Amino acid sequence: MPTETSVPAETAQWWRDAVIYQVYPRSFADGDGDGIGDLTGVRERLPYLAELGVDALWFSPWYASPQADAGYDVADYRRIDPAFGTLEQAEALMAEAHALDLKIIVDVVPNHVSDRHAWFQEAVAAGPGAEARDLFWFRPGRGTDGELPPNDWQSVFGGPAWTRTANPDGTPGEWYLHLFAPEQPDLNWNNSKVREEHENVLSFWFDRGADGVRIDSATMPAKDPALPDFDPDAPPVPHPYIDRDDVHDIYRSWRALAESYERPRALIGEVWLADPVRFAHYLRPDEMHSAFNFDYLNCSWDAAELRRVIDATLAAHASVGAPASWVLSNHDVTRHVTRYGRADTSFGLSLRQHQVLTDLELGTRRARAALLLDLALPGGCYLYQGEELGLWEVEDIPDELRQDPIFHRTGGTDIGRDGCRVPLPWSGERPPFGFSPEGASAPPWLPQPQRWAAYTAQAQSGRPESMLTFYRTALGLRRSERGLHGADFGWLPEHAPGVLAFGRGDGFSCLANLSGTAAPLPADADVILASAPGFDPGAAELPDDTTVWLRRR
Ligand code: GLC
Ligand code: MG
């Protein structure tokens, strides 16, 4: 194992203000030409990511998986899915990233595994009452012949959260719980073997160089063992499976493990919770280091709402001494260029809108303004691959090509998440736009719009007004701006309604105009960077839907 040299405390706490870029391996870059992104593709593009100016890469699951939920159904954490590559390649990738000063975050999915995981196969084969079944939630059905599910829980992806198994002799048997797809049986965290195995998985990846983990569905692993029926519109407190107090024990032991390394590893949680106090519990000093700020992601493009969310975020994080985080997109939500181009700019998982009137030009202008806003706020930022190219949600994917289990399990009433997962355009005039090499044996796993010819990384490189140039400039300035790396933050009083204005350290301030009309710019400050392409730094006014970074003269 490589020895670690000691590092000063601020460097050791790199996650506190890092920009973390999410790589969705299936859709990033395809090195071997099978139409599916892979580790070879990522390795070839590491210089692009370093040049972009991010600090860390978070990889959505790359482990062996039948891909029933795009890798969030893990069959074996110690192997890389053959579609993506090999463990040796993952190790090489991590070493190459480190050489470029990029940290690596891997994904872990404690709530469930794949139905092809050895444990589940063994549990099904072993039959009712076997010890192997205690790693999951197997229960006899209700009704005269056990033909009804053990309770009324519904899957997050639609339909009942239970599937019936057959007994080893072929007769209908017990049911098992899956809060997501049937291919994702839930684990029983009351069983110490489940805990032990996950800690071994964490060590496996930490020992190989991972600098942290992103924890999937982090509020859900602990269950009420009584598995009671409940009304989802008026759930009991505590909820039978969301945010139960005992879930925190898991992360306390993970934190201890992360701290046992000389260079402590970071724990980053996917914590979808409306209550900021309950949210902050996950970030107590002996639990996770950071969690995605979904309130911000979900917030409308509205100054008062954003200010409320920013204040609530900063207060909740301050209460536990954790850094705030800012995020606009990921592999589960409608791309924000599209969201911001709609009349209703909020996002709710249950309200995934589809083909409503969208003004992509407006969405793009706001996406640029939003980037400067969140890069200027104190804390860390998460970027989702393709947002630096200004990509929008692809809404015209033919039904027969859609792969997301949400689409299939809801009979298409929820369009699902394929539209934000379309393979990236890198170069050239037509699909696969350099996603796959010349002479590839298969087209990209989801079709790319022809209009992306103008949005490839190649087409945007060196163009002063492109989204890619804007991201590179903004990320570079964020890194070098001293005022953005301290704890200083304060709202500036003197601005018009609909204008968000705040100061950070060192004479730095940020102004975002969402007022619907031009707003005056302060006379005593210079514009360092503006979100509107072609903005005249000598202008006296800030156009609508525009953000500027300023330095006091
Ligand atoms: C998380 C992931 C999502 C996945 C789900 C089940 O929400 O981000 O993509 O489908 O968990 O693992
Ligand atoms: Mg491939």
From TrEMBL:
<dbReference type="InterPro" id="IPR017853">
    <property type="entry name" value="GH"/>
</dbReference>
<protein>
    <submittedName>
        <fullName>Alpha-glucosidase</fullName>
    </submittedName>
</protein>
<dbReference type="InterPro" id="IPR006047">
    <property type="entry name" value="GH13_cat_dom"/>
</dbReference>
<dbReference type="GO" id="GO:0004556">
    <property type="term" value="F:alpha-amylase activity"/>
</dbReference>
<keyword id="KW-0325">Glycoprotein</keyword>
<dbReference type="GO" id="GO:0009313">
    <property type="term" value="P:oligosaccharide catabolic process"/>
</dbReference>
<dbReference type="Pfam" id="PF00128">
    <property type="entry name" value="Alpha-amylase"/>
</dbReference>
<dbReference type="InterPro" id="IPR045857">
    <property type="entry name" value="O16G_dom_2"/>
</dbReference>
<comment type="similarity">
    <text>Belongs to the glycosyl hydrolase 13 family.</text>
</comment>
<feature type="domain" description="Glycosyl hydrolase family 13 catalytic">
    <location>
        <begin position="22"/>
        <end position="421"/>
    </location>
</feature>
